[in-house]
C-alpha cells in the first residue's frame, strides 16, 4: 500500500522505503550513500539493469553490517539519470529491515535524461512534486528529498531550470534539496536561485563540502542557512576530513553539519556489480577519532542523529 503524504502532519517525518519515521524511530542516519549507480549513458545496453538476486547478494551484507554497527537509516542518493532502481532498493530494505530514503531530481549534464530537455518548467516541477507526494512509479515509496547537481565551471541552462523546479517543488512539500556541486561559488549561486523561487535556505544541502577548500566559502554557505556535508569518510584521507569537521565545529557550525561515506554500491557496468565499499567506517573509526579529539557525545549525536533527521524530515 502506498504511503500517503499529509501536509498537515504534526511532526516531521523521514520518508523511507519502510514508511514514514519520526525522530523517536531512528538514531544514527547516514545522509549520503548509494546502493545502485550506473554512470553509463542511458542508451547503453543494459543500462540500470541487474539480476535482483545478484544485486541483493552484494547490497544486503552492506546494509546488514551497517545495521549491526548502529546505523538506523540510510539515504540513497542516486537520481534517475544515474540508474535509480527503487524496486531493487525496496526489496533489500525490506529483507534487512534498514529504512532507506530515496531521491527524486535530476543530476548534471551529461546525465540529464532526454525528457527533461523537452519538459516544460511546470512539468518538471510537477514530476518532482508527484514523486515526493504520491510515490516513485508504482513502488509505493515516496521520494524523501530532491537530488540536483551542476557543472563545476558554472550552472548550465538545463541545470538552472532544474534548480528552479526543484526549489518550487521543495517549497510546496517541505523537502530538502541536496546538490552534488563541488565548486562553492556555484553552490552559492544555486542557493540564490532556489531562494528566489521560494525555498527556505535551511532546506538546501551542499553535498561533498569537503571538496570546498576555502573555509570562507564554507562559512558563507552556512551563513545563508544551508547545510554542509562531509561525506568522504573511509575514502582514504580521514585525517583531513577529521580536520575539516573539527574546523567546522570550532567555527560554530555544529548545527548545520552532516557526515557520511558516499559508499556502496552495485554498478551494473562491472562484473558482479563491482567491489562494494562498506557503510561502517563512520561508526568504526571516524566517530571514535572525533571523540578522542575531545568532541562531546552530545555534539556527535547532533552530527549523526539529530542533524540528518532535521535535514531530511518533512
How many individual β-strands?
Answer: 11
Beta-strand residue fraction: 5-15%
Low-confidence stretches: none
H and E order: EEEHEHEEHHEHEHEHEHEHH
What class do helices, strands and sheet pairing give?
Answer: alpha/beta
Strand order of the largest sheet: 6-7-8-9-10-11
Largest sheet geometry: 6 strands, parallel
Evaluate the radius of gyration: 18 Å
Shape: globular
Give the helix proportion (percent range).
40-55%
Mean pLDDT, all residues: 96
Alpha plus pi helix count:
10
User: How widely separated are the two ends?
Assistant: 20 Å
Describe this structure in words.
The chain contains ten helices and eleven strands. It is of the alpha/beta class and 314 residues long. The protein has a six-stranded parallel beta sheet. The mean pLDDT is 96.
Keywords:
314 residues; alpha/beta; three-stranded parallel beta sheet; 10 helices; 14% strand
Topology:
Elements: E1 14-16, E2 19-21, E3 28-33, H1 52-68, E4 71-76, H2 86-96, E5 100-101, E6 103-105, H3 114-118, H4 121-133, E7 145-149, H5 157-173, E8 177-180, H6 184-196, E9 204-207, H7 215-224, E10 227-230, H8 238-250, E11 257-259, H9 281-292, H10 297-312
Parallel strand pairs: 3-4, 4-5, 6-7, 7-8, 8-9, 9-10, 10-11
Antiparallel strand pairs: 1-2
Helix pairs in contact: 1-2, 4-5, 5-6, 6-7
Amino acid at each position: 500500500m502506498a504511503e500517503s503524504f499529509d501536509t498537515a502532519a504534526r511532526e516531521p517525518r523521514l520518508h523511507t522505503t519502510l514508511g514514514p519515521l519520526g525522530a523517536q524511530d531512528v538514531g544514527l542516519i547516514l545522509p549520503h550513500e548509494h546502493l545502485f549507480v550506473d554512470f553509463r549513458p542511458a542508451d547503453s545496453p543494459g543500462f540500470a539493469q541487474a539480476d535482483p538476486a545478484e544485486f541483493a547478494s552484494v547490497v544486503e551484507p552492506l546494509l546488514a553490517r551497517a545495521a549491526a554497527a548502529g546505523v538506523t537509516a540510510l539515504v540513497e542518493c542516486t537520481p534517475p539519470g544515474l540508474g535509480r532502481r527503487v524496486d531493487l532498493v525496496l526489496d533489500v530494505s525490506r529483507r534487512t529491515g534498514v529504512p532507506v530514503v530515496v531521491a527524486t531530481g535530476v543530476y548534471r549534464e551529461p546525465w540529464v535524461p532526454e525528457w527533461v530537455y523537452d519538459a516544460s518548467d511546470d512539468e518538471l516541477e510537477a514530476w518532482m512534486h508527484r514523486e515526493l507526494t504520491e510515490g516513485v512509479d508504482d513502488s509505493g515509496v515516496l521520494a524523501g528529498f530532491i537530488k540536483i547537481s551542476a557543472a563545476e565551471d558554472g550552472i548550465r541552462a538545463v541545470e538552472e531550470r532544474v534548480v528552479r523546479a526543484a526549489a518550487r517543488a521543495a517549497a510546496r512539500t517541505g523537502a530538502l534539496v541536496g546538490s552534488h556541486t563541488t565548486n562553492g561559488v556555484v553552490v552559492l549561486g544555486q542557493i540564490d536561485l532556489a531562494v528566489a523561487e521560494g525555498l527556505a535556505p535551511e532546506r538546501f544541502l551542499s553535498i561533498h563540502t569537503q571538496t570546498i577548500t576555502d573555509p570562507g566559502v564554507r562559512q558563507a554557505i552556512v551563513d545563508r542557512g544551508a547545510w554542509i556535508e562531509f561525506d568522504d569518510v573511509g575514502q582514504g584521507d580521514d585525517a583531513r576530513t577529521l580536520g575539516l569537521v573539527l574546523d567546522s565545529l570550532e567555527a560554530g557550525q555544529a548545527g548545520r553539519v552532516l557526515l557520511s561515506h558516499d559508499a556502496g554500491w552495485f554498478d551494473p557496468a562491472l562484473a558482479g556489480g563491482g567491489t562494494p565499499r562498506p557503510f561502517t567506517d563512520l561508526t568504526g573509526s571516524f566517530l571514535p577519532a572525533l571523540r578522542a579529539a575531545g568532541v562531546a557525545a552530545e555534539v556527535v549525536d547532533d552530527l549523526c542523529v539529530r542533524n540528518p533527521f532535521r535535514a531530511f524530515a518533512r
